[in-house]
Amino acid sequence: MPRSAIATGLVDYVLPVEEMPAALLEYVEHAHLRGAPIPVPADPRHDPLHTILALLCTREGHDFRCYKKAMLLRRIQRRMGLNHIAAIGDYGQYLGDTPAELKALAKDLLIGVTEFFREPEAWAVLEAEVIPKLVAAKHPEAPLRVWVTGCATGEEAYSLGMLLLERVASSEHNGELQIFATDIDRHALEIARGGTYPEGMASSLTPERLTRFFTKSDNSYRIKKELREAVVFAPQNLITDAPFSRLDLIICRNLLIYLEPELQQKIIGLFHFALNHNGCLFLGKSETVGQQLSLFEPLSKKWRIYRRSGPVRHVPADVPLIPEALPRERPGGPRPHKPRPDDHGEVTRALLLARYAPAAVLVNRDCQTLYFHGQTDDYLVHPAGEPTDDLLAMAREGLRLKLRAALHRAMREEQPAVVVTQVKRGGASLPVQVTVTPVEDQRQGVGLWLVTFSAPPAAEAEPAPRAIEESAAVAHLEEELASVKKELENVVADLESANEELKVSNEEAMSMNEELQSTNEELETSKEELQSLNEELTTVNAQLEEKVADLERTNNDLDNLLASTHIAILFFDREFRIKRYTPASTRLFNLIPSDLNRPVADIANKFSDGHLLSDAQRVLDTLTPIERKVRTVGGEWYIQRVLPYRAHEDRIEGVVVIYTEITELERGEEALRESEERFRTLAETVPDIIFAHRPDGFSDYTNPRFYELTGLPPGAADGFGWTQSLHPEDWERDQSRWRQVLAAEEPYEIKYRLQSAAGGYRWHLIRGRPIADASGRVIKWFGVSSDIDDLVHAQEALAQAQKMEAVGQLTGGIAHDFNNLLTVIGGNLQLLEARLQDDPAGQKLRDAAARAAERGAERVHGLLAFARRQVLQPQAVDLNEIVAGMMPVLRQTLGEPIEIVLAPGVDLWAALADPGQVEAALLNLALNARDAMPEGGRLVLETANGTLGQDTTAPEAELTPGDYVLLSVSDTGEGMSEDTKRHAFEPFFTTKTTERGSGLGLSMVYGFARQSGGHVKVQSERGKGTTVKLYLPRAKDALAAAVAEDLLPLEDLRGREAILVVEDDADVRALAVTYLSELGYRVLEAAEAQAALALFEDGEAIDLLFVDLVLPGTLDGHALALEANSRQPALQVLYTSGYPRTTIMRAAKLDKGARLLMKPYRREDLARAVRGILDCSAGLMPEGRTPGEAPAAC
């Protein structure tokens, strides 16, 4: 296949010669090409053609719904044959999957058949009869506006442009010529804009026109500028876009033949709107204005040239002329019709019109029928022969003459006309009143007339002749005659239908002829494209010529720039006479045009110094430019540059003096100096360190604050001297971070420790930012260093507090569970005491278990104290006594390898602390010492008195000045590192394995000491052992005296009242019930709040409610107590809980006076609490007691 054919882009196959016959045979034998029709489904929603049109619209942007279906199917069949696809549904699927095929189909459907002066006879009529009148009718200065629709590649638009330019040139018209050429094919528009056509088109043009309007190149012709500038090409869709307006001529040739008839009529109406009065419409030979003859009058029926007639229409037809979006199929079928709100009114109006409105016909000025309403058969009948829309030809016998008279009178007078006559129908004459009423059609803008037929008023009705009885034979003949007439009417209707089909077939044939012509022209496209390439080469050469002209213009512009510059430039000869100067020089020298060739010394200037002539002489002597700053008497600053004036062959013929104003620059430098002074003042007075250094760390500025904080002499930080004040560990880390910062060139923040003048290290925060030069290269780093030592310690304290809070939340839940267990264990062991009086061995085991339970309760108490979730029970204690009492336990726990040395203090003060917590702290410290001495060693326990004054240093500084009792625990173990000492008191921190420690020991000691108002201090060094000092506050005299309450014996705490025990733990509930029952009380029990309320609802008389604060369900213990009190106001309440007192009091929102018995409790504790509450409520005191000695519950 020739490459020239391939290059056109119009070939369907590119194959070797041996494969071409098979491809041609396969294409020819395709079913649809042999006449097989494409099946059309009954349901249009499932029509594959609808799918194909939707793809073309959504993906290619072209809506072909309005095109004739037959034409669309023919084009689709051709593409199906080329792709060997038999079913149109399969082809639709293939289009969806193949964008290239979709583009090819769209290109096939955009038929672009055109040429210069196509159908020359039609153009001759346009040139001779239409254009001269259009030009003559226009005002000489008014624009002549023309619209060429469907212009394709522009030949028709340029043809029209030639005719108009020729006519305008020979007339007196001076107005603008505006030719708008539009099309939806953007590729065709690009060809039209290029204006390059193959040389074969020359046969369609006269030699004169070819010479005037075209430029010949090798194988093509190019439109000249005059014609090209007269035509504006633009993409425009005639169906969806708004039309142009105020037009004198519209050309729409061979476009309407592809569209459906209904749309053709809409477009004709659109053209009527767009045209000026007496504007012309030029259609194709196969196109007409259809039924809208009232809008146009023919100028040439053969060549379809029309002139606009009818009144002016002020609004166009609806745009777009078709719906904007393709209808999409809804899931499940079409949506059922939902009547609009006004449908009922329409139905009513239609029914009334059908029943009561008279028969009527709408006609135009030519008496052509446009619309029928009602039973017009009584008055009109279609005549035999050719179908006609002439109203007078349809009138029945007796009606035609008076109907014609009424029509003529109504049209002439523009007033309704009424006549009464007789119409013959069925052998009888019937009276009828005919009324002709003028109607103005606002949409079409033309005059219409409505002819109505009705019965005349009674007074005017002519009497109908009496009916004459006819014989049966006459009636039969009339019946047969009516039948024959009916059959004749059917035959006439069939003939009309056949004629209509012949017209459609004729139109289809015309369309096919057009398509065949389009195919022939497409075959010539390959040749045209080659000619286009040659034309493009010509275009490139023309562009090069334009570039040369541009360069010339640029040189001229540069010359003008020098003449108009705002820089003062003066040219002197060797005698310092003025040769030339720029206009800006007149601002500095009093120059006028006549001063040329005058010595510059004679010209007054505005400078305050006189260096100009001396500098000019020195430049002549040395040929070295001189530059200096000069100032005018008005305070303006300039740079004065004096340079030698070098002519051809480097001859020195004078000097050039250039003045560049730098007033703003000088002001900026002055502002910069002031800014530097402000910065220096700021840097020397702020409390932070300010520094600047190079990217390599070399310091070239450090403010005085650095030397004040570090104690170094001024200048010691210059270079790399600042590094000597950094902590060694931070310096290594800082170097790594510094390298990252240099690589990223972004702002940074670094925390580090800086040695202070006092010798210690304090935390600082550096914030640094890079400073870049104009090229973006970082040349300096500027930063501020702030002392944040106090902030760091505050953050560490906050972190410690947060950890303690987390541990506290954990220990609260653990304590609740353990307290419930210990209550059951201790209570049952207490109940066993009476049962084992005769069993010494069993009693011994019970006592051991009871002590273990008490120890467990103390450990839970200590755990809560560590977490600061438990209120301690401080009292005056003797540390010597506690330490001595712990010795057996310590020896047994630590084992023989560890020697315990006791060093009690003399005259030791009493300490204020919880004794159980002191024992737990001592045991924890001893166990830590044992773990630090795996091979054995010595443990020293020492007590002493101590007083802290106002000048105490850390860690004693964290204590309030006063008297303290000291417990010191020292070992000879491994000792601690500095890092271990910093984290020693943190929860869960440990250096042991998980089997040997949890990390809570020292934390609990620390928590107990701080909650007691004391402190813990650790002294340790690697390899030299560890000493832990526990500071406890001294007990004051008022607290040192033991206040022991005179407790009543258990037998005196019995009673008979009714007590309700509400406890969700079955074991704890059973134990409490047993305790109270053995004391003589009537006891009821419940496991949850609702069961307890049920007892109150049953009317049980209850004296005291003993309830756990935490219960399952929606009501807790406190809510239950409130509900119970609302039923029995005299009810007394005793709460209990295994949670820490402070936690449960806050969570349950208890009042300060609420009675709370903490778990685990003993029988005596419960008995005293219950008896005390009941006695207080009754106003009774046990015998021998006073109100001041009443139990605490009161």
Provide a compact summary of the structure.
42% of the residues lie in helices and 20% in strands.
Structure explained in plain terms:
The protein has 1194 residues and is of the alpha+beta class. Strands 6-2-1-7-8-10-9 form a seven-stranded mixed β-sheet. Strands 12-11-15-14-13 form a five-stranded antiparallel β-sheet, covered by helices on one side. A five-stranded antiparallel β-sheet has the order 17-16-20-19-18, with helices on both faces. Strand 33, helix 29 (1066-1078) and strand 34 (1082-1086) form a beta-alpha-beta unit. The longest helix has 52 residues, at 472-523. It is flat.
Classify the secondary structure makeup into a structural class.
alpha+beta
CATH fold-level assignment of the largest domain: Heat Shock Protein 90
Under the CATH scheme, the architecture of the largest domain is 2-Layer Sandwich
Regions with little confidence, pLDDT below 50 for 5+ residues: 327-342, 460-470, 524-530, 993-999, 1037-1046, 1181-1193
Rg for CA atoms: 58 Å
Shape: flat
Amino- and carboxy-terminal Cα gap: 119 Å
CATH class of the largest domain: Alpha Beta
Helix proportion range: 40-55%
Could you state the CATH homologous superfamily of the largest domain?
Answer: Histidine kinase-like ATPase, C-terminal domain
Strand content: 15-25%
Mean pLDDT, all residues: 78
How many strands appear in the DSSP assignment? 37
Task: Tell me the domain tally.
Answer: 8
